[in-house]
Amino acid sequence: MKIQQTAPGIEDQAPTTNVKQLRGLIWMCAILLILVATAAAYFVWLMSQNNVLANNSLRILDRSEWLGEPPSGFKLLRTPVSNVIIHHTATEGCDTEDVCIYRMRMIQSFHMGSLGFTDIAYNFLIGGDGIVYVGRGWHAQGQHINGYGPVSLSIAFIGTFGNEAPPDHQVRAAKRLMDEGVRLHKLHPDYHIYAHRQLRPTESPGQKLFELMQHWPRWTEDVTALRRLNNAPLRFVARAAWLAQPALEALPPLALPAKNVRFVTTSTESCDTQASCTFRMRYLQSLHIESLDKQDINYNFVVGGDGSVYVARGWDASCEADSTDEPPFNGLTVGFLGMSKPSASQTKVAQELLAQGIKLGKLAEDFQLIDELK
Question: Does the predicted TM-score (pTM) go above 0.70?
């Protein structure tokens, strides 16, 4: 008897088809889950990157955006520049763009209208809003310090920072601007940072900002190299500038050229600003006249911790001998403000002073140095 085989019916195929469909759905769900997880991870990463970019971004406001007046003239600045000088504007600060723009316009108006500058003095200014405001920019010499425009870039913090430090975002903006200058080849990769007060008798950029600057990697204490670029290695503070009183009597002349030089400490507290050094000089003069019965402050020159040379009796007047001098000293006396051995920068300033004395014919080339600091 022949058995007839029949093809499987729909009922027999249904279980197999259902299993295949279920597997397909599972794979689709897995793929969808992977895609969703990937998209979520990418979104989280993108948001974190946006935060990093927002924190590290540098916003620069061009002259046209702060409505700056056109300059009446300018001189090209050769780049890359190797020196950056930090200032403060000694004005009220600003923490919004509108107020900072107002400050910019007032500063430019003062510099051009009252000081006779050809433009706002600085290359860049940093607002308390964390925005960089373009002054003269990368390519024009500044008028921030007479003689230093051709060899430096000036960055001014808008505000006054004698008693209060600038906010962190204002400092970050200045640092990022300098990094940008290196990237654009406008600043030399090995540039140096200085404070305005190191080159001129001024409080700028303010004591608190000055203290911050001393922790910056490119902060430079010794300004001798920069001063040589300007052919002005010394910064003298005249008697009138430190408010000296006149000598009680006419001072005896010093035999020139002087053949002897003596380095001594003033045995007072040190100083690192013009204001504090001026106070020390006035104290010394009063001490010498009123307590030691001298006719005047009993130094020819005094080197301050701020890098300035304070004129005491000058090149042409001799100092009065002390009772302990055996034999009496006859020569040039240079004092160093402080209790202990002077810093390396103070010593360099004193050496520059003596070199200038030789050039002026006030000091003999073969002078003898008596260093009482050792």
Answer: no
